[in-house]
Amino acid sequence: MKTNSNSTPDQVFSYIEHMLIELRLMSEKENAAVLAYLIEMAIIEARDTADAEQNPVTPAVEQVLNEKQLLNS
Fold it and tell me: Is 0.85 topped by the overall pTM?
């Protein structure tokens, strides 16, 4: 898939995730454990970024989440 100006953020991040999965599999096949791990972190980041694009957190919700985190510390 070539991304273009008509691609939605969801399509772009889905494509990035797919490519990263392929790279992780290649890394694992070559026993490059650290590289595979780093690519796995990039996969997680791509998913999280896509989720954030679909479900943006408003400032008020973000403040509540930060306060809950402080209380649980």
Answer: no
The DSSP secondary-structure symbol of 57 reads P
pLDDT digits (tens, 9 = 90+) for 1-39: 555 678 888 889 889 999 999 999 999 999 999 999 999
Give CA 13 to chain center in angstroms. 8
Which residue type sits at 53?
E
Closest C-alpha among 58, 41, 53 to residue 14: 53
Q: What is the largest CA-CA distance in the chain?
A: 47
> Domains of the chain: which residue ranges?
9-72
Angle CA 34–43–13, to nearest 5: 150
Integer Cα distance of 73 and 70 in angstroms: 5
